[in-house]
Amino acid sequence: MRSHAQHSMLQREAGGVLLGRHLLDSSDLVVDEVTVPQRGDRRSRFGFFRSKQHSALAQAKWAASKGTVAYLGLWHTHPESDPTPSSVDKHDWEKAVAMDSFQGAELFFPIVGTERIRVWTKSRNGPIREILELRDEHD
Ligand SMILES: [Zn+2]
Fold this sequence. Notes:
18% of the residues lie in helices and 32% in strands. It contains two helices and eight strands; from the N terminus they run E-E-E-E-H-E-H-E-E-E. It binds zinc ion.
């Protein structure tokens, strides 16, 4: 995700889906991979529309892994250092939780800014809230 951070004025928003695992006996989860921008996405400096190809890819990976690589949420970038969700983002997240099929209690929604990655989550019935405990095993 970081490789798509919008450091230059010319870079457009990017995004995709999060794929990974819920850890047994823990509320932790591990994001193993993310889908990257696909043909069919509509991208601008201040907007990202995810095409259906991302959910098709997620389905394919889930099937190929025999159900171990799960759909965990949606990520996208913002051209700001400390990203905050727009009303469009919040609407998109509410819709994902309401309409998408997923395992577990909630979906996760990282926004990749130029300095920080922040992550929000939403359960089926709860409000959108920010997650403050993040670990990046690649740092
Ligand atoms: Zn956004």
